[in-house]
Amino acid sequence: MVLSKDQFPVVVQAYDIRDNKEFFVAEQIVHGQSDVDTFTARYAGKLIKARALSATEGNQHATKTHVKKSSSAGMIILIIVIILIALIVVGFYTGWIQRTFGINV
User: How far is Cα 26 from Cα 45, in angstroms, rounded to an integer?
Assistant: First the structure.
């Protein structure tokens, strides 16, 4: 499916056809031809339709900001794991773990 530049953004929809009926599968707002190509590749074998954004969708889309919120929880867990590994290495190197837990290596 090829769309011209003046038609974007549009809503692209995928439908599955069974028993001569269309069943909705997915929908995405696309901003360029590469987005359309990705969507059609993802839903290959499905009926693909494109429609213009309605006024309500256009207003909602214009007010949304696409800011990726990064989670700091993963970074904190990574730092804690690195610190624990460093403490274990130092504890074995100095012999503290062997003396404390009675390990004979």
Answer: 13
